């Protein structure tokens, strides 16, 4: 049997945590033959609820689940972690400016990055889900100088999956027939879902759609504002779909992308496509042997260029803001 993989989940008592933990424990994160040990990190007020969730996990009698530890100390929770899902974050509350939000989250992600640096396993892979995800990932990465920078990633897979679903509805093709979609930039309203390289049943998606106005006025805003639409409809933010995307992100990272396809992830820029080096920005990526690689050499048309640049500009402003706050 394989050695258990230690998976640390922060914000374990939150709504995404509740949708995520059972899927991890059942083997959907890493594979049906990989035993897992769960480490749950919460703030003190969240510990009791996390214990309740752990009781329910016990009650599922998952054959792959080797143990559950709960802590409010990052140094304990990240000890020996192979995979870290950073879900817990400080949400924006009424009257909070963006600077306040970045500062509050810096107070979470900087110490967590340091704890990962000091205690996680050598093969640690980090996915940041908590918003603002890209910049929180940058803060954690900067606090972990001994961990290769590319091990820190931010989640745009939910945006990617939302784009797949919208394009499927528009074209009538099942999602399984849609390949090579891309989310570029920030996981925010400025993100750019790009269909120009995508394929629908083997044909170029932009040609199949053949409606630039639909792309500009319907598709892009529907994907970018889907989170708000879910809140409006459900009275709570996306949870099961966010957990599903986190599962997809890590599963792909570990097990690879299919030949002839790619996915989207927030990864450290190497300067590709004019995205300044070091920013954690969403790109088209393949995964192989446990590593993401940015897909190279795509033509970027004028329509795409403007939108990628706008989202990347927002990421640069966030980086500048956290630099001025001394967080990176
Ligand atoms: P909840 O408020 O339900 O849960 C968050 C949990 O995190 C709480 O239990 C809280 O006690 C805990 N927490 C807070 N600070 C912590 C810390 N320092 N250490 C450990 N735990 C801590 O939020 P939920 O709906 O689960 O969403 C979690 C995060 O995901 C939010 O930041 C949200 O904005 C973000 N999202 C990101 C998405 C993405 O695509 N990247 C989509 C879904 C979601 O909106």
Explain what you see.
- The protein is α/β, with parallel strands linked by helices and 328 residues long.
- The protein has helices spanning 15-25, 47-60, 74-77, 98-119, 133-142, 157-171, 205-209, 212-224, 226-234, 240-255, 302-324; strands spanning 5-10, 36-41, 65-71, 83-86, 125-128, 152-154, 178-179, 182-184, 192-194, 199-200, 203-204, 263-268, 280-288, 291-294.
- It folds into two domains: 5-154, Rossmann fold, CATH 3.40.50.720; 157-318, L-2-Hydroxyisocaproate Dehydrogenase, Chain A, domain 2, CATH 3.90.110.10.
- The model has no long low-confidence stretch (mean pLDDT 97).
- The protein binds ligand NAX.
- Ligand NAX binds next to α1.
- Catalyzes the reversible oxidation of malate to oxaloacetate.
- Its EC number is 1.1.1.37.
- It catalyses: (S)-malate + NAD(+) = oxaloacetate + NADH + H(+).
- Keywords: NAD, Oxidoreductase, Tricarboxylic acid cycle.
Quick structural overview:
It comes from Streptomyces hygroscopicus. The protein is 43% helix and 19% strand.
C-alpha Rg, in Å?
A: 19 Å
The percent range for strand residues is 15-25%
CATH homologous group name of the largest domain: Lactate dehydrogenase/glycoside hydrolase, family 4, C-terminal
Structural class: alpha/beta
- What is the highest CATH level, the class of the largest domain? Alpha Beta
SSE succession: EHEHEHEHEHEHEEEEEHHHHEEEH
Count of discrete alpha- or pi-helical segments spanning 4 or more residues:
11
